[in-house]
Amino acid sequence: MSVNQDKSIYESLLEGNKIWVEETLKLDKDYFEKLSAGQSPPVLWIGCSDSRVPANQITNTMPGDIFVHRNIANVVTHTDMNLLSVLDYSVNVLKVKHVIVCGHYGCGGVNAALGNKQVGLIDNWLRNIKDVYYANEKEIISIEDPQQKSDRMVELNAIHGAKNVMSTSIIQNAWSNGQELSVHAWVYSLKTGLITDLKTSASSAEDVSPVFKMDAK
Which domain holds residue 177? Predict the structure, then answer.
């Protein structure tokens, strides 16, 4: 890519912003004034960083409707202080009603984790997905078709992530305090644009495996 092409892409982003502002103000002249007054999104979205999976656009929602955390392959791990900080703020300050872990079919991170090729620093991050594979090894090995194997791993990774969210002290303390809060696992299809509910949801500690339950502090 030439310097001029790169500059053109860069400038097009700024120009696109101006166009968006103009079109938005035509519909609602007070839109940005109201938006700047504060946020109270009912949903926290934990998704993949993939540029093809923008949370607001694929759910037909507006800025202010969804609080978003994204990382490579929507991994949820108990040592990720960035994610835990977002979760804590979402639950205890914003008082979200739903936490959604959403994976997507065709995820490059999941596919990389299914292989043995070294990529770089990210290999250490993808190790979390390999742990999901190991925990479900019998099922995954039984799937012969590579595409089906990848799709199932995407689903299991989202389910595992949702269960990890459920088992955090942040979520369990909220439930102990009577807070209305549910956790879900979803998967998005790039080919159809549709989201599938993976039927892994919890709205109380009763839905969490006993080994992960914590006494109220």
Answer: 39-212
